[in-house]
């Protein structure tokens, strides 16, 4: 693809990477919005600065439209970094090739992953993709994809099944293992990836599981960049600015951060030249980000949606929401963290409020509200545990959870149906039809053990606070409830 700059064009930066010189040393599973604007962009900048050959082979396991599109444009695409005042458009040239089971066959994808030069298999497959029960951190053996892959391990469907089969092939062929690097917004993402891969492998073949345990590393990473799902308007806007229509383009905020545990079995690119940080222990950074950014994001998403705000930046125009989000970051979340000395959490919170306020992004509250059953435990549950143990104030967390409970009720404050997207959507619908009064509905949701700690239901002070918060949101409305904090 070549960019024809248009007169209204702000800044369009072409990629200086020579794709022909790249090798597929990284296979990435999940060519989604986040990866395109994050890891692939870091890789592009790293390649421009180092001239190395760490190219990416992009793999999608489910829908194949985007991969076909990417192929038709020589695996190049655009990222638009939209600040409050200006937009910068960058072309990404880090992708060497792509693979898809539907287009190329399952075996072709597995063979690619088993190629000798592949040193890293990275992934952005969302919380659900790990097929793990996030409360226990163990492989969910009842997951239909896992059940399928256990029976047909050489023709897998899940990312976990692909990784294990590719590692089996490498072992069989005498090829060294690769590093498995999760780039998902999941607490201790490397440990979760490891639990899923080893959990699955040990059900298939204990020798293989042992080989994986001794030969594969699973570095944790903290990934951060606000990247709303692509919409028609966003793509049209980029087309107008860039002078070319790119269906693979993606808009995001200018800010980006990537903290990576430096633990790779076959080397890794110098992503630090593009601003990534390699550290020994990522967990404190992950917790900081998940609790302060994502925790308040979910709070704003549920209570914002119910309050009639379509986008996160709209909620920031309401001083009550703005204050509640900031207070939640500092008082409910920051104090639960154990950060390296010198970390400025107040400055971090201020920066988050500024990032949330970016009016150019149009990040939908509805989008962030999806998959709450997967997100609540790490964004709010862990801090709640801290406050209950330490006797400190957790009212922002209670209100966030109450907002989520009201949201999954499925009807907004105007009486319109809410499109609930969540693996537990059917369970929520059953609970809603079975329990009419607030207290029993709250208790029924609270007894979902994949989301909430077991003992919570017995904690009468907490349960009372939650029912009160729920009733406040349900009766007086989300805006009133947020203002009352
Ligand atoms: C958001 C995240 O959709 C969501 O759940 O909270 O995608 C958030 O934008 C990113 O984690 C920011 O790095």
Topology summary:
Blueprint: E1 11-13, E2 23-29, H1 33-37, H2 39-50, E3 54-59, H3 65-72, E4 77-82, E5 87-92, E6 95-99, H4 101-104, H5 106-114, E7 120-123, E8 132-133, E9 138-139, H6 144-151, H7 159-172, E10 179-182, H8 189-204, H9 206-215, E11 221-224, H10 232-242, E12 250-252, E13 257-261, E14 277-279, H11 283-306, H12 312-315, H13 319-333, H14 345-356, H15 365-369, H16 372-390, H17 395-407, H18 425-434, H19 438-446, H20 460-476, H21 478-483
Helix pairs in contact: 5-7, 7-8, 8-9, 11-13, 11-14, 11-16, 11-17, 13-14, 16-17, 17-20, 19-20
This protein binds D-mannonic acid.
Residues 185, 224-226, 293-294, 297, 367-368, 375 line the site of D-mannonic acid (CS2).
Summary, kept brief:
The protein has 485 residues and is α/β, with parallel strands linked by helices. It has 21 helices and 14 strands.
CATH class of the largest domain: Alpha Beta
> Roughly how many Å apart are the termini?
51 Å
> In order across it, which strands form the biggest sheet?
6-3-2-7-10
Strand content: 5-15%
Overall pLDDT score: 96
List keywords for this structure.
single chain; about 475 residues; alpha/beta; Rossmann fold; N-(1-d-carboxylethyl)-l-norvaline Dehydrogenase, domain 2; 2 domains; five-stranded parallel sheet; four-stranded mixed sheet; 21 helices; globular; disordered N terminus; binds D-mannonic acid
